[in-house]
Amino acid sequence: MTVEHIGNTTVRYRAYGHSLNCNSPLHELEQSPAPDASEPADLHIEISSPNEHLPTSTSRYLTVSLTDGTPWLHCARIDLGYILEFPNLATFVFAPSENSIRCIPYPQTPSHTLHHLLLDQVFPLVLNHRGKEVLHGAAVVTPYGACAFVGPTGSGKSTLAASFLASGYSVLTDDCVVLDTCADNLVVIPAYPGLRLWDDAITALFGTTGAGAPVAHYTPKQRFTAAVSGTPVCDSTISLAGIYVIEASSTEPTTATSTFERPLLSKREAFMTLLSLAFKLDIEDQSMLTREFQFLHHLVTQVTVRRLVIPDSFQALPDLRASILHELAQSC
Question: Which of 95, 191, 270, 287 has the most CB atoms within 10 Å of its CB?
């Protein structure tokens, strides 16, 4: 199913601490009550038709490529703001002065793929431009505060977060940890319900198959919602208790009796690691870079950051989860 343009519908949503107006349903989000006319949305999202005119730009400043060298994302500046182009999939126009994101899909792009790119790829970059610090990672709610798992794609962040969800702990966010300060406390802002998981992880952790919806047409990952697990969704900010930098194990599966090493990173190493895992829309925006440096410097002086190698074994996750909770309890 490709995207259909719906011009006379305005739907209100909330995600990442922002209220959103969209001219077309975003089925991945939960609809908010009808907005009061006196309460403007933080961002306006317009789903356009594939033949929509695009502003031109010769000021491309960044290309992000896949591991095989294939371009994945082109970023360019225009008079209105920024163009984010995912070749052969969709183009997004972000206009900061209008607080708007225009989404122009390619004719063959399904609606769920467009929504995934918007919510999970574009939105983290827009949040960074709007003054938030955003890390590539997942976060869960524990009795001691929010615990974030950050790391590169494929390291196992979502699987570890899903193991907490399967044990009754709410998930704050899957792949985009939005951080802020509240009364001098570091907090994590909830994203929206759902995890993006492989089928084997869903089966191993939740004992169910076919419970998810496709994330995008180019990946077999499934969007698994917290509602299916029966665990309540957390929709409030939670104080940050700890951060684990996740690395995938390159060794044989770890047994359930193994000891999990979680070395504490030095402040300098933690700073440099988190800096490399931060979403940045404009890498030449000096005010953003200064803000980010100051925030991360404050973060590593307030919160412990540890490195964690995740074993390639679902059977090891319960012991790993217990070890993390024990460590968080000791640091409180």
Answer: 191
